């Protein structure tokens, strides 16, 4: 089905970028205003939350059954865009190493069973990128204090990082991979519907379910 044709003239898109608690309150209010009637599609930008936190973001154990039910109903109209979580064996080992190191430095904090956030790997790759640029500057006879020269060597390049293929464009921005999460109305859990890669490829995991309608 053509999404644009289906939604043309009948749907409004609302983009949210806030904490999970704030998004939940907005969605409950949207339910009260009947904005979850199919005329509105909500996109939530959530780059920092863990997998466990994004599994059932509508649910709060310390809230009433009525509000949880309202939130769950409203979240049928919401899709979440988040950074794609790397799945390579290399990243899994990196995650184990980070958690082991964190346990030594911060004994009162635990990651649990899930892997570390993608941003941890992104910071690691940023250091590797800087190291590449610094080494090239030194090899070319440059000065390690020449920040402009070092920075320019980071632009418009690609290398294999801990998170996968790292691509920096000509403006110095990273071309990132993203996942589109959609709630399964039967389980109430958010799952990966599609993955969008920096190089333009697209990987569909499941059919998108919007208001109990499947899109393939």
From TrEMBL:
GO biological process: signal transduction
GO-annotated cellular components: membrane
The Receptor ligand binding region domain, residue ranges: 13-185
Membrane topology value: Single-pass type I membrane protein
GO molecular function: natriuretic peptide receptor activity; peptide hormone binding
InterPro entries associated with the record: ANF_lig-bd_rcpt (IPR001828), ANP_Clearance_Receptor (IPR052612), ANPR/GUC (IPR001170), Peripla_BP_I (IPR028082)
Compartments, record wording: Membrane
Alphabetically ordered keywords of this record: Glycoprotein, Membrane, Receptor, Signal, Transmembrane, Transmembrane helix
Highest taxon, organism lineage: Eukaryota
Name of the protein described by the UniProt record: Guanylate cyclase
Organism: Elysia marginata
């Amino acid at each position: 089905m053509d999404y644009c044709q289906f939604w043309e003239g009948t749907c409004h898109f609302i983009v949210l970028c806030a904490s999970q608690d704030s998004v939940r309150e907005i969605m409950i209010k949207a339910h009260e205003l009947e904005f979850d009637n199919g005329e509105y599609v909500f996109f939530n930008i959530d780059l920092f939350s863990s997998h466990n936190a994004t599994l059932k973001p509508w649910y709060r154990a310390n809230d009433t059954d009525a509000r949880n039910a309202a939130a769950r109903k409203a979240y049928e109209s919401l899709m979440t865009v988040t950074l794609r979580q790397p799945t390579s064996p290399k990243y899994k080992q990196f995650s184990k190493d980070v958690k082991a190191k964190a346990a030594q430095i911060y004994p009162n904090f635990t990651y649990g069973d899930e892997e570390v956030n993608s941003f941890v790997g992104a910071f690691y790759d940023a250091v590797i990128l800087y190291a590449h640029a610094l080494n090239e500057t030194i090899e070319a006879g440059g000065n390690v204090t020449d920040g402009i020269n070092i920075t320019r060597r980071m632009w418009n390049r690609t290398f294999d990082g801990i998170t996968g293929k790292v691509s920096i464009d000509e403006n110095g921005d990273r071309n990132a991979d993203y996942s589109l999460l959609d709630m399964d109305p039967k389980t109430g859990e958010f799952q990966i519907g599609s993955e969008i890669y920096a190089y333009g490829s697209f990987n569909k995991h499941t059919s998108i379910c919007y208001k109990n309608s499947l899109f393939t």
